[in-house]
Amino acid sequence: MPAVLLSVVVITFNEEATIARCLEAVRGIADDVVVVDSFSTDRTVAICQELGARVIQHAFVGYVQQKNFATAQARYDYVLQLDADEVLTDELRQSIGQVKQNWQGGGYTLARLTNYCGSWVRHGGWYPDRKLRLYDRRLGRWEGLLLHERYEMQPGQAVGTLQGDALHYSYHSIAQHISQLNRFTSIAADELWLRNKRRVTWFHLLLKPWWKFVHGYFFRLGFLDGFAGLSIALISAVGVFLKFAKLKTRSASAE
Fold first, then answer.
1. Any bridge partners for residue 211, and if so which?
2. Taking the complete model, does pTM exceed 0.90, yes or no?
3. Which helix (H) or strand (E) holds 214?
4. Residue 209 has pLDDT above 90, yes or no
5. How far apart are alpha carbons 221 and 210 in whole angstroms?
6. Which sequence ranges are marked TM in the entry (predicted)?
7. Secondary element (H or E) of residue 190
8. Burial class, 227, CB count within 10 angstroms (exposed 0-12 / middle 13-18 / buried 19+)
9. How confident is the model at residue 252 (pLDDT cuts 50, 70, 90)?
10. What is the DSSP string of 65-85?
């Protein structure tokens, strides 16, 4: 088949610190760049427009809904969906360029290498963190409830693997990690509630957080990442406790 035309899609809200780096890295492979913004109050929209992206304002109603809406705004059926804090490496950009010349199957996964407070994290289950981000939008859609959205291909569609990493600049400070953890654990508790998984025991409050730390720090070799690995393992364990603690208090108030 002839070379495909590619739309790069990004959803944003107050991403002025990261969006320029993200958009500059797709030059040369993107035939169309669309940013769906949730009414940012900083310079996100201005930066995107300065870099030639189409900006569409759309109120945020959930990650799944927002990403499906954004995918629908692309000019072309072949879509690369990125988060504003992700940057393509040269190797990944070259791999995408090769796929554009010889597209096969329904989509492709990419690996993410996360930068945590200035350190690259390669253990603890954080790498390669493969995500299906390059896809033919006619053959799938974003699925999920409130958290952990994922792109699902139609049954029988082949999924390939891209070479190279997307650099994920996730957390700039411990305070930012804790702040986001507080928000995400509330969403996770809400999701469990909606899925009717409302029973919380001491197993959930004590053993699951303990296992989260042990599994990430020891079994997944998080200790090899030094302070970053220790911080991630401990905060992640606290996150498990908070998720179930918030669910328990919600269940108690509903009785």
1. none
2. yes
3. helix 208-214
4. yes
5. 16
6. 217-242
7. helix 174-194
8. exposed
9. confident
10. HHHHHHHHT-SSSEEEEEETT
